Automatic annotation (TrEMBL):
EC numbers for this chain: 3.2.1.51
Gene designation: LOC101848897
Name under which the protein is recorded: alpha-L-fucosidase
Domain Alpha-L-fucosidase C-terminal residue range list: 373-462
Top-level taxon in the UniProt lineage: Eukaryota
Domain Glycoside hydrolase family 29 N-terminal, chain residue ranges per copy: 28-362
SMART domains on file: Alpha_L_fucos
Length: 466
């Protein structure tokens, strides 16, 4: 059992109680366990520059690989007819969800292979599901006993292997997703029955696991989920974050999201997610993230998914551009099957994303939202900007190659120093200014085999005055 309790004003005293130790920590100039203090923490700079991360949902739910990662709940929690029928048709009557655990074999899982694939996608960070709502931990947790990847299934520390490969073979930031609740854990159900007046599950399971993964794996993203049934007071979220920001080994670099209680999402925390696949299409005042899936319908692997269920690369890129244009990052999910070899459809999308970013990354990494997010006169044009000592450059992301020899943009106000180029194309482009602002760019004829990329082209406009 482990818990943190922090009190103080400017000077915070944290009491850590664990099965192995009892220590008193005095921290000067600490973040306090209240949202005013916690929300004052600056977002680590690496995150806003990164723009793209890879999400990975992998667990016991990858064994049935039917319906979604919510398979257990859809079977025994709030049964859905298709899942119930699937079990009746394919498994004996006495089969339990725990029996899937030993079939989570991971025989083809190679952390280095995953890490290299994620690096080639052009992503800058990865967030791996350490534990989903089923409660199975992908590391040998002291608080999950026989329901973890070392004791049952692969007999491996999956989190540790992926962490080591990511940090030794790539420059990706390594992060971990963690579900605060578990659908069927007896302690959680007892706390829920009490109206969340008791906190046995939090004290004996949620918080000890969070401290354990931070202290063991030092993630640079702690992505919380499963918080929505109870408020932050029940989860002791503020106390955990005060420790994370003040006294953990990743206190200066770690990024967290906003899922820390039923009353918190989209209001407090680090990066706002607000909901799955959140993509508002307008500029947001607070840094946010679009956590989304290549499979339109599931975060976990589905054996019966159809080709049409997966987003095309054009769809992915358009989602990505709209996200970054409006100030967000995109966290793009892949769901490996139980054996751990990422299937070709995901590999292809990751490779395609990487090839596009090799050409167009200048308009992505380190960019910021421009004054306007999308063009008013030409449909399917979205903007980012970069500013340095020479002025402001605007990047126009064009979803469809112009069907005439002119691309009309009405929003950029050019100057006498303005130059226009197509990222990946070797020569500058000519243009005509418009009144009172805007420009018409002359589109060169480019043979198909010499196009800088296959999808979604980026025009750079320098020395913009607005």
């Amino acid at each position: 059992m482990s818990a943190f309790n922090c009190i103080g004003n400017g000077v915070v005293f944290c009491l850590l109680v664990s099965a192995a130790s009892l220590s008193l920590l005095q921290v000067v100039n600490a973040y306090e366990p209240n949202w005013k203090s916690l929300d004052s923490r600056p977002l680590p700079g690496w995150y806003d520059d990164a723009k793209l991360g890879i999400f990975v949902h992998w667990g016991v739910f990858s064994v049935p690989s039917y319906s979604s990662e919510w398979f257990w709940w859809n079977w025994k929690g709030l049964p859905t007819p298709a899942v119930v029928e699937f079990m009746l048709q394919n498994y004996p009557p006495d089969f339990t969800y725990a029996d899937f655990g030993k079939q989570f074999t991971a025989e083809f899982f190679e952390g280095g292979e995953w890490a290299n694939m994620f690096q080639k996608s052009g992503a800058k960070y990865v967030v791996f599901v350490s534990k989903h709502h089923e409660g199975y931990t992908n590391w040998p947790s002291k608080y999950s006993f026989n329901w973890n990847s070392m004791a049952l299934g692969p007999n491996r520390d999956i989190v540790g292997e992926l962490m080591n490969a990511t940090r030794s073979k790539t420059d990706l930031k390594f992060g971990l997703y963690h579900s605060m609740f578990e659908w069927f854990h007896p302690l959680y159900l007892a706390d829920k029955k009490s109206g969340f007046k008791s906190q046995d599950f939090v004290n004996q399971k949620t918080l000890p696991e969070l401290y354990e993964i931070v202290e063991t794996y030092k993630p640079e993203v702690v992505w919380s989920d499963g918080d929505w049934e109870a408020p932050d007071v029940y989860w002791k979220s503020k106390e955990f974050l005060a420790w994370l920001y003040t006294n953990s080994s990743v206190k200066d670099t770690v990024v967290v999201n906003d899922r820390w209680g039923s009353n918190i999402s989209c209001h407090h925390g680090g990066v706002y997610t607000c909901g799955d696949r959140f993509n508002p299409g307008v500029l947001q005042k607070h840094k946010w993230e679009n956590a989304m899936t290549i499979d339109k319908y599931s975060w976990g692997f589905r054996r019966n998914a159809r080709l049409s269920d997966y987003l095309t690369i054009e769809g992915l890129l358009q989602t990505f551009v709209i996200t970054i244009s409006c100030g967000g990052n995109m966290l793009m999910n892949v769901g490996p099957p139980k054996h751990g070899h990422i299937v070709p459809i995901y590999e292809e999308r990751l490779s395609q994303m990487g090839s596009w970013l090799k050409v167009n990354g200048e308009g992505v990494y380190g960019s910021r939202p421009w004054t306007s997010q999308n063009e008013t006169v030409t449909e399917g044009v979205w903007y980012t900007k970069k500013t340095d000592a020479s002025g402001t450059s605007v990047y126009a992301f064009v979803f469809n190659w112009p069907d005439t020899d002119t691309l009309r943009l009405d929003l950029p106000q050019v100057s006498s120093a303005t130059k226009v180029s197509l990222l990946g194309y070797p020569t500058l482009l000519s243009y005509q200014t418009r009144s009172p602002k805007g420009l018409s760019i002359s589109i060169p004829f480019i043979s198909i085999n010499k196009m800088p990329c296959q999808w979604l082209w980026v025009f750079k406009i320098t020395a913009v005055e607005n």
